[in-house]
């Protein structure tokens, strides 16, 4: 870990600097869910979306969550910081708040800088939208993606307006995914309403290369593949700007 220079002339300075650095790291992990940028200078910024995406409702403390109010400022900073030239998104999420997930996906999609996503473990539900929002998407061979209709919890008013609202929300998500991937709309809906795979629900689970064959994800690969293609995209963009 990189620490700033300190002087040995003052007793206890070494311990004070280490304590400040450790406190800063701990605070950053608690607030943002990830450590500060590594000491070595890099033009690639990494955002991890882990656990459940937390939106307008605060989830129980035992849930591992990614808070969208933490992700959005980071995406703005990526756009504004001239030293950051590319974004790497690491996903291992069960999904979560639809509005929050779609907001994150829209921001990734509208970045002016190259972006690459990598699904590790799982990129389920609204996580699919985030995965396909980047310029290039990767999935690990053992990672899975679950495609299913919107689920709501709590009390619902059983009136036509409620079902119209749900249909419009589902259409927003489906349209976004189809637009930002190579899957056909009819095929996506077929996977989404599949009744023969999930015991207690409808939908489809895609593993690794199945997600690629269906056109949802671009390539099967890992961190090395994702970083390499992102570096190539950054270099290509720099050549165009010259």
What is the CATH class name of the largest domain? Alpha Beta
Low-confidence stretches: 1-19
> What's the CATH H-level homologous superfamily of the largest domain?
2-enoyl-CoA Hydratase, Chain A, domain 1
Radius of gyration: 20 Å
- Strand elements, count: 8
Please trace the helix and strand order, writing H or E for each element. HEEHEHEHEEHHEHEH
How would you write the strand order of the largest sheet? 2-1-3-4-5-8
Number of helices: 8
Q: In the CATH hierarchy, what is the architecture of the largest domain at level 2?
A: Alpha-Beta Complex
Q: Any idea how many domains?
A: 2
Look at the helices and sheets and give the structural class. Answer: alpha/beta
Q: What is the mean predicted local confidence, pLDDT?
A: 82
Give the overall form. Answer: globular
Strand content: 15-25%
Head-to-tail CA distance between termini:
35 Å
Most strands sheet: 6 strands, parallel
| CATH topology type of the largest domain | 2-enoyl-CoA Hydratase, Chain A, domain 1
In short:
This protein is of the alpha/beta class and about 240 residues long. It has helices at about 15-30, 70-80, 100-110, 125-135, 160-180, 185-190, 210-215, 225-240, and strands spanning about 45-55, 65, 85-95, 115-125, 135-140, 145, 205, 220.
Protein architecture, described:
- The protein has two domains: 1-41, no CATH class; 44-241, Alpha-Beta Complex (2-enoyl-CoA Hydratase, Chain A, domain 1).
- α2 packs parallel to α3 and α3 (98-109) runs parallel beside α4.
- The protein has helices spanning 13-32, 68-80, 98-109, 127-133, 160-179, 185-192, 209-213, 223-241; strands at 44-54, 65-67, 86-96, 115-123, 136-139, 144-147, 204-207, 219-220.
- It is α/β, with parallel strands linked by helices and 242 residues long.
